Amino acid sequence: MGGTAAHDSTAANRSIGPAPLFHWRCERPLLVASFERPQAALSWAMARPGFQTMSRVAWLEVSRADLTLEVDPYSLLADSIARADLTDAVAMMTSRDVRSARSAEARSGAVAAQCLATVGLNNAVRAGGSAATERHGFGTINLLAAVSAPLAQSALVEALSIAAEARTAAVMDLNWLVDGAVATGTGTDCIVVAAPDEAGGAPFAGLHTDVGVAIAASVYAAVAQAGREWIAERGRPA
Fold this sequence. Notes:
Number of strands: 13
CATH architecture: 4-Layer Sandwich
Low-confidence stretches: 8-18
Number of helices: 3
Order of helices and strands: EEEEHEEEEEHEEEEH
Largest sheet: 9 strands, mixed
Protein name: Adenosylcobinamide amidohydrolase
CATH topology: L-amino peptidase D-ALA esterase/amidase
Strand content: 25-35%
Mean pLDDT: 90
Pfam families: CbiZ
InterPro entries: AdoCbi_amidolase (IPR002808), CbiZ (IPR052209)
């Protein structure tokens, strides 16, 4: 396995190496990542979840005022992406200012990965803790993790687990406490993984593969950077 490197980017489309895997633009309330060729994707996103073929991923920024009790969030998202001509996109919602998105790229051997993440921790939880929601505010982690190598469908599932593992590692290292315990994520996180939609994909994407190492490094770097900035803006609770 080759060496790894991870770099974060705070400006759209700043890249390391020959080229990024996708380009992204931010026009509030939307953040859009675009690929030059079709991607096989897997997610539990609100719009186009599950296994999909796509070339764009979108984040919609919303506020409490947007999501009153009378509003169906799925309809709000569908209407918003339709107005923006993004109905082909896998799409998520976030309460985080989409201008805060952070991108990181990593490489292991011949495999490159790129992650774009928005991070808010108002809704932070610890896995295995209480499911109570009355004390939780808006705030979530939404990320896209893309890899340069085509993946078999089973490997795409494994890639999703690796991205989640790296997200959790980054959040834990932020040392954000929930009821005295270190948070592992938020109650409403969403992850999209993507790989070129081509035949003959790699069968595995675990942490002993270049695919897994590159995905994990890019996700960790993007979530850690965005999380540090969120904490710096708000400060830690006394």
